[in-house]
Amino acid sequence: MGAFEIVTLFSVLAMLALLPSTSVALVVVRSSTAGFRHGAAVSAGIVLGDLVFVFLAVLGMTALAEVMGGLFLILRYLAGIYLIWFGISLIRSKASLQSAQSGLPVSGHSAPSMTASFLSGLILTLGDLKAILFYASLFPVFVDLTAISAFDIAIIIALTVVAVGGVKLGYAYYSATLTGQGGPLGKGLAAARSIKVTAGSLMVGAGAYLLVKP
Q: If phi over 0 gives left and psi between -120 and 50 gives alpha, with beta otherwise, what is residue 149?
């Protein structure tokens, strides 16, 4: 992976981590009601869950590339189409965290343990199995899976930890330092639309590149 691919992949991962979602809502709620440390624990669980999907996606796609040979090109085209569809869906979706927030505890009557906070982030992330499909579609844009090296995998892991973990910790810190109703959930809606359009545009661009790259 070159410098351009590293910067671009980091930007995509960070932008997607910023999107209003159930994971963001969980980080904010735990930080607002139990403090920053619990928000950080949730963030760590989310990152670990993402890393599980990263490993499954990279190793799975690499194995397919070795087995299928030239037919792997078909999977690359399908991945490109999926990214374009995903990007358009983001651009057209409404900016709302209400559905993400529903069903999550919003009061601090019973303080969760650090382990419970960590596991809640991990379980929530692992429950989204379509993330494997997303990562499997995204990574071929930035690295040749037929010749991926251990160094490339290490870079992808580091980018995932820094981008996803950094954004979630930012949400945790921001919400923990605010008093009132849910921290950045309300204020975040003002910027959610522009974030979704930007992230969606990146996905469409990545998918188009995957379709036309030699």
A: beta
Cα 76 to Cα 13: distance, rounded to the nearest angstrom: 20
Using the Cα atoms of residue 115, residue 37, residue 166 and residue 152 in order, give the sign of their dihedral.
Answer: negative
Would you kindly state where each structural domain of the chain is located, as residue ranges?
3-102+113-212
Model confidence pLDDT, tens digit, residues 147-188: 788 898 999 999 999 999 999 999 888 888 874 444 444 444
pLDDT tens per residue, range 71-82: 667 777 887 888
In angstroms, the Cα distances linking 24 to 15, 53, 174 are: 13, 18, 12
The rounded Cα 143 to chain-centroid distance in angstroms is: 18
* Of residues 161, 167, 135, 123, the one with CA closest to residue 55: 135
